[in-house]
Amino acid sequence: MINILLASHSRKVVEGLREVLVQMAPDVNIQISGGDNEGNIGSNFEEINEIINKYAKDDGLVIFFDLGSAMLNCQMAIDMLDEEKKSKVYLSGTPLVETSVQVAVNASVGQTLEETIEYLENYPVNKLDNLN
């Protein structure tokens, strides 16, 4: 089953969103990273990197983020992976709440990483489109 990482500048945001996802898809592994090392608003590269390295395997890891530096920290951690692990990770630029809920529900009924990527890449609003 697909793993999910929610990366935010606020621990409270991802804790609350994780609560929603677990309610809707209790069997899906939902990891969170929010705030900096001191518990302030910010992004935590070390925590993000550790989670990505741990879950970039098996059925894959889909990452959702809230703001630019969270995205950059996720991308930097992905760039440090070997090619095999990179192929198991997808960084989504879609809306954090809406699509993470849908992906968690889809994962709970067996949607594959490839099917999830197709869904996310065809989502009408993708924040990463402007970067290409």
TrEMBL record:
Keyword check for Hydrolase: no
DNA repair found in the keyword field: no
The enzyme's E.C. designation: 2.7.1.121
Reaction equations catalysed: dihydroxyacetone + phosphoenolpyruvate = dihydroxyacetone phosphate + pyruvate
Keywords in alphabetical order: Kinase, Transferase
Superkingdom field: Bacteria
A GO CC annotation given for this chain: membrane
Biological processes per GO annotation: glycerol catabolic process; phosphoenolpyruvate-dependent sugar phosphotransferase system
Binding partners and assembly: Homodimer. The dihydroxyacetone kinase complex is composed of a homodimer of DhaM, a homodimer of DhaK and the subunit DhaL.
Protein name: phosphoenolpyruvate--glycerone phosphotransferase
